[in-house]
Amino acid sequence: ALHDGFKEVEQELPGAEDLDGAAQALMRLQDVYALSVKGMANGVFQRAGTSRPPLYSPGRRVSLSADDCFHVGKVAYDTGDYYHSIAWLEEAVGLFRLSYGSWNPEDRSSLEDALDHLAFSYFMAGNISHALSLSREFLHYEPRRLRGAVPAPGGAGGAGRGGCHGPPPHHCPPPHHSFLAPLSPQPALEHLPHLGCSYETNGSPYLLLQPAKKELVRIRPYVALYHDFISDAEAETIKGLAGPWLQRSVVASGEKQQKAEYRISKSAWLKDTADPAVRALEQRIAAVTGLDLRPPYAEYLQVVNYGLGGHYEPHFDHATSRKSPLYRMKSGNRIATVMIYLSAVEAGGSTAFIYANFSVPVVKNAALFWWNLRRNGDGDGDTLHAGCPVLAGDKWVANKWIHEHGQEFRRPCSTDPQD
Questions:
Q1: How far apart are CA 124 and CA 234, in angstroms?
Q2: What pLDDT, on the 0 to 100 scale, is given for residue 253?
Q3: Where would a tag sit more exposed on the chain, N or C end, judged by fewer CB atoms within 10 A?
Q4: Looking at the predicted structure, is the pLDDT value of residue 155 above 80?
Q5: What sign for the dihedral angle of Cα 170, 173, 177, 182?
Q6: How far apart, in whole angstroms, are the C-alpha atoms of residue 331 and residue 402?
């Protein structure tokens, strides 16, 4: 009976893929926000090498065990990512040393395992002397279980195969996720006189009694934030409708769509007939943007959920190739994006515009709008943007992508062909 009961719930339980994904999420947060591994293991989100206040201070601190740190390091080790494996295995070794000799029923690994993997990581990173030192310590605990003699410097598998030189991790750059390095100083508000806030009706009777609360974030690219765009009740309704249909998000790859590590989230699509709340939201988007959302001029509403470490690396919303699946709608490219924040996020999750060098934090119930195409129909390169990893909390957004066909008289071409 116990076995049968377990089989029933097994599909809903986290598996090896989920566990490895959590480890990769921690490494992603470490890179993007330059976090200290020791701090993360202690439940503190502190930038490495600084004494500044933590980026985020949770109300309840949860520490990682030696076993947890070993697993994160092992995930990096198995993919040849010795920059991360060294940092996390060092922390695991330190924690295992503190508890060496005491039995913990949760432990799946040990000090010997951590030393073995750490020594080989240092060897592969080119620090042979430290690798030998760790191997000797490993031999002290397990004289009969050494994987094999450590190769001589420059031998097979050593630094001669190319890798990081010098004692890692200090001389090895992170292998990825550098796209959200600290942004250079943004212009002070007094130097951007055209930015401001206003009540907008956009000539729509729909907005006469309740104008949109518009904050102009940037002129180039044109980015606007509409505050209180959706109510709490509407947001909860939309999340509830999407919940049962959520699946791992896919991205366009050539003429196909597939899962990718650079987009970690779950998403679902909602038609305007799914619920009156969705239909009302579509009417509001049409009124604020002044664009035609009737099929096939716009896509269905996409609801996306990002968990811990969930992110989307730099990308364009518009297609950059005529072979893109976006053109199957036969309504042209994506002219504009409306992204509605359905939830608040405790830390992280900002939308960063890479080339334009600014970011917009998550503002619950607000809608972010920008033009993907210039008036001449060319893609706007300044709209390259990314979804920063969620550091704490749960991020829900709803995306509405509007296509260029049907908008010819709503956003006409300019007399300047370069505009």
A1: 54
A2: 57
A3: N
A4: no
A5: positive
A6: 9
